[in-house]
């Protein structure tokens, strides 16, 4: 498990109170984790701060699951 | 008429705003704010000519800078049209096209979304100081019925409607005009620190801006609203004016021992959608006061407020002063000085809801003996999410029907999420699922379809052959 994945899982747990063991690489933000739009925005905000990055609206919309997020962060 | 300019002049160096942006946060006094508005009004006049009666759109983040544009356009006698940059391209285009824009002020990052036959001005240019300054005057009673604002809101049909609000709707009555229940809020007013997260394309955002100036409060605004969970850490606020959706985020913070993220909040005020009873209870249990409003864009905001939630958890509160509530076939109807002029260039749509000054809210409910209003259902076909966003099911159904494999569909809300019921051949389910996944990538974050419920039978129909909701 990558460091990026672990950090992202911790952020999701912190914002949405979803147990870490319920969050997998392939978990879909909407279908599986049932995150609200505000939770997703807050999670993105915390990811941006944790990794010192800025995500555009377009990039945000193309994210479906956790592994998309991990790949996106690692690609920068 | 509320004399906002005179008020601000008299406030001098009292703090007006704090723009929250991590290490780049800053405070602004009322003197500085007024100065900024006048400089902006000068730039606007230079760019668009005399603003009187001109339709000026804004597409920008809802932060402190936005409030400068609000003040400058309003007091230059322009007609303000806030545009929600998160909307679908169709709705943005429709809002721009149908509101007859003369000019459009756009934030650099949203430039691609602004296409049309009008003058576009860069937000940063409009906010520059040093070019000059325009003296601005308060409104007189003669201007009461002038158009001040067109706010687009999701209607029951697929395209959003432009709600026309007058100068009188916005400034015709003072904030003290609310009922006695409002005293909780008033107590925490002059000099108090109020965090407002309602966007300025939402009537609650605009009202939040006006009322707090009137109260001589300091308004705290996030430079970027998605930073709501970090912006208040290390700050001290008294009141939070937030959507029920944010309250849910805050509830999780409280439960997980992160109450410091609420910035010492003493009173939570909400509106735009129904807050969950469990959420209200969490705040009360943690010694945070709670108040909620009920209103619509068509009433220029609040028509009731509830500051006795302990005894009336399920109620939206008592009508504010000047608001007369009646019922027609169970539907809540109101007469009130905040009632809109009508829908812009839509006399038929206006006639459906407005009759001799009586507004049909589209909500069903009843008034209890103690004067508290309860909402029991909705006559209009509209999804209202805890984020305060209104979503038209028809708009999403139209998009689903773009896939010919979808024989019938019905979009509805369940547990604060959008669901779609779809009738199709069993063999087509996988393809339709994929179609929805792709559709979700184009939709604004609050309009995404969370779940597709497939069925192998037609939906039940009304006598007219329409799907029963």
Helix coverage percent of residues of chain B? 25-40%
Amount of helix of chain A? 55-70%
CATH class of the largest domain in chain B: Alpha Beta
Q: What sequence of helices (H) and strands (E) makes up the elements of chain A?
A: HHHH
* Regions with little confidence, pLDDT below 50 for 5+ residues of chain B: none
Assembly state of the chains shown: heterodimer
- Can you summarize the main beta sheet of chain A? none
Strand content of chain A: under 5%
As for the CATH topology of the largest domain in chain B, it is Rossmann fold
Summarize model confidence as the mean pLDDT of chain B. 92
Q: Output the CATH homologous superfamily of the largest domain in chain B.
A: ANL, N-terminal domain
What does this entry look like structurally?
The complex is a heterodimer of chains A (76) and B (469). By secondary structure, chain A is mostly helical. Chain A starts with a helix and ends with a helix. In chain A, helix 1 crosses helix 2. The mean pLDDT of chain A is 93. Chain A is globular, with a radius of gyration of 11 Å. Chain A has helices spanning 3-16, 37-51, 57-61, 66-75. Helices cover 58% and strands 0% of the residues of chain A. With 469 residues, chain B is α/β, with parallel strands linked by helices. The longest helix of chain B is centred in the first third of the chain and has 19 residues, at 30-48. Chain B has 14 helices and 26 strands. Chain B has two domains: 4-373, Rossmann fold; 383-455, ANL, C-terminal domain (GMP Synthetase, Chain A, domain 3, 2-Layer Sandwich), CATH 3.30.300. Chains A and B meet through helix 1 and helix 2 of A and helix 9, helix 10 and helix 14 of B.
């Amino acid at each position: 498990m990558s460091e990026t994945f672990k950090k992202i899982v911790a952020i999701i747990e912190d914002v949405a109170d979803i147990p870490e063991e319920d969050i997998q690489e392939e978990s879909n933000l909407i279908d599986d984790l049932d995150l609200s739009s505000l939770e997703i925005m807050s999670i993105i905000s915390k990811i941006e701060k944790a990794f010192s990055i800025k995500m555009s609206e377009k990039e945000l919309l193309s994210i479906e699951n956790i592994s998309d997020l991990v790949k996106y962060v690692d690609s920068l | 008429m509320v004399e906002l300019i005179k008020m601000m002049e008299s406030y001098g160096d009292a703090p007006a705003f704090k723009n929250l942006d991590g290490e780049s946060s800053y405070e602004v006094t009322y003197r500085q704010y007024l100065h900024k508005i006048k400089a902006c009004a000068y730039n606007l006049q230079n760019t668009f000519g005399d603003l009187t009666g001109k339709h000026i759109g804004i597409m920008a983040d809802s932060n402190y800078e936005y409030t400068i544009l609000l003040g400058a356009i309003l007091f230059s006698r322009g007609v303000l049209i806030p545009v929600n940059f998160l909307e679908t391209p169709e709705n943005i285009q429709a809002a721009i096209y149908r509101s007859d824009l003369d000019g459009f002020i756009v934030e650099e990052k949203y430039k691609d979304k602004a296409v049309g036959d009008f003058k576009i001005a860069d937000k940063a240019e409009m906010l520059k100081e040093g070019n000059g300054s325009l003296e601005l005057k308060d409104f007189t009673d003669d201007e009461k019925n002038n158009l001040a604002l067109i706010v687009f809101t999701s209607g029951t049909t697929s395209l959003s409607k432009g709600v026309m609000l007058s100068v009188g709707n916005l400034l015709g009555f003072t904030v003290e005009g609310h009922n006695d229940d409002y005293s909780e809020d008033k107590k925490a007013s002059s000099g108090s620190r109020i965090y407002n997260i309602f966007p300025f394309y939402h009537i609650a955002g605009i009202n939040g801006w006006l009322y707090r100036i009137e109260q001589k409060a300091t308004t705290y605004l996030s430079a970027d609203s998605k930073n709501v969970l970090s912006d208040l850490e290390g700050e001290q606020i008294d009141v939070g004016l937030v959507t029920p959706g944010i309250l849910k985020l805050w509830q999780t913070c409280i439960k997980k021992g992160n109450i410091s993220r609420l910035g010492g909040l003493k009173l939570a005020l909400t509106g735009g959608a129904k807050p969950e009873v469990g959420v209200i209870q969490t705040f009360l249990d943690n010694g945070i006061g709670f108040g909620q409003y009920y209103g619509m864009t068509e009433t220029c905001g609040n028509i009731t407020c509830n500051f006795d939630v302990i005894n009336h958890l399920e109620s939206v509160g008592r009508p504010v002063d000047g608001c007369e509530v009646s019922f027609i076939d169970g539907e809540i109807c109101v007469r009130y000085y905040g009632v809109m002029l009508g829908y812009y260039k839509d006399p038929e749509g206006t006639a459906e809801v407005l009759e001799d000054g009586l507004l049909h809210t589209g909500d069903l409910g009843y008034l209890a003996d103690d004067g508290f209003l309860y909402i029991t259902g909705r006559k209009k076909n509209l999804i209202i999410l805890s984020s305060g966003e209104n979503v038209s099911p028809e708009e999403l159904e139209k998009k689903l029907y773009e896939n010919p494999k979808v024989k019938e569909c019905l979009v509805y809300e369940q547990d604060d999420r959008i669901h779609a019921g779809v009738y199709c051949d069993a063999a087509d389910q996988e393809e339709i699922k994929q179609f929805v996944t792709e559709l979700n990538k184009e939709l604004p974050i609050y309009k995404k379809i969370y779940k597709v419920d497939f069925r192998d039978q037609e939906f039940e129909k009304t006598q007219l052959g329409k799907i029963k909701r």
